[in-house]
Design a protein that fits this description.
- Two copies of one chain form a homodimer.
- Chain A is mainly beta.
- Chain A has a single domain, classed as Jelly Rolls.
- The first copy, chain A, contains one helix and twelve strands; from the N terminus they run E-E-E-E-E-E-E-E-E-E-E-E-H.
- Chain A has one helix at 126-132, and strands at residues 7-10, 13-14, 20-25, 36-41, 49-54, 59-65, 68-73, 78-83, 88-92, 97-101, 108-113, 122-123.
- In chain A, the strands form three sheets. The first copy, chain A, has a five-stranded antiparallel beta sheet, with no helix packed on it. In chain A, strands 8-7-10-5-12 form a five-stranded antiparallel beta sheet.
- In chain A, a hairpin with a 5-residue loop joins strand 2 (13-14) and strand 3.
- Chain A is globular, with a radius of gyration of 16 Å.
- Chain A binds chain B through residues 17-26, 28, 33-44, 47-49, 64-65, 86, 103, 106, 108, 110, 112, 116-117, and chain B through 17-26, 28, 33-44, 47-49, 64-65, 86, 103, 106, 108, 110, 112, 116-117.
- Strand 4 of chain A pairs antiparallel with strand 3 of chain B, so a sheet runs across the interface.
- Chains A, B: This is WxcM-like domain-containing protein.
- Chains A, B: It holds the Pfam family FdtA.
- Chains A, B: InterPro entries: QdtA_cupin_dom, RmlC-like_jellyroll, RmlC_Cupin_sf.
- Chains A, B: It comes from Thauera sedimentorum.
- Chains A, B: Residues 5-130 form the Sugar 3,4-ketoisomerase QdtA cupin domain.
């Protein structure tokens, strides 16, 4: 469940001069049932949303308006994904640490998630996340 | 299944100075499983999205960015709902004719739907919709 399982998902677009339409169906465009939809808005330009990872939850992240970066880390490698199109989703599997930053003013970040909210599913500490992966905790002076 | 079953749904907000977060869970904040998510974007200011109704599909409509109006009609009465907050959804049950208009430039309209796409579930003709409700078709000179 490393970064090699992360991928951009090109979503369908119905083009129309009155506006474009994109749709996402559970178990079709994403490999899970959509149990929860959440979104970040009223985000100040340049804001940063902090790190966490999920034991089981999978998700698809979409820039509904504006742009931001998603930084993903599988405990061994880290990669930055720039999001600025409503018709590209970023699929994030379980056990990936993620942060979101570099928000443009007025951007909207939508996330489709495979599970209802469950605090027990979260890693909120990066060291615990590494231990959960079976990796040694990073020495304090490198953390 | 008339207009009396339409309602605004006040969605939860987690306030944060780095941006606000709203979440919607299937069978909790909406009375259905979320099988499909779709959204309208790149909408020119003042655009109008045309009428249809669904035999079975229920939906929640949210203004993710900007504003627009949703005009709902149950065959006997019509009502206009102004949408301009990310934390209010409009619940639309089955057998309600709907149009969306008065889009602000750059607005994003998100819809959570209870079913996958099925063209057979649509009424695209208002007269057929009225007949489906057991109402007489509107005389041509009043239509």
């Amino acid at each position: 469940m490393g970064l090699e399982n992360v991928r951009y998902v090109e979503l369908p677009i119905i083009h129309d001069r009155r506006g474009n339409l994109t749709f996402i169906e559970g178990n079709k465009h994403v490999p899970f049932d959509i149990r929860r939809v959440y979104y970040l808005y009223d985000v100040p330009g340049g804001a940063h949303r902090g790190g966490h990872a999920h034991r089981q939850l999978e998700q698809l992240i979409v820039a509904m308006s504006g742009s931001f970066d998603v930084v993903l880390d599988d405990g061994q490698r880290s990669r930055r994904f720039h999001m600025n199109r409503s018709f590209y989703g970023l699929y994030v599997p379980r056990m990936i640490w993620r942060e979101i930053d570099n928000f443009s003013s007025g951007s909207v970040c939508m996330v489709l998630a495979s599970e209802h909210y469950d605090e027990a599913d979260y890693y909120r500490d990066y060291q615990e996340f590494r231990v959960g992966l079976g990796l040694p905790a990073v020495p304090e002076d490198e953390a």
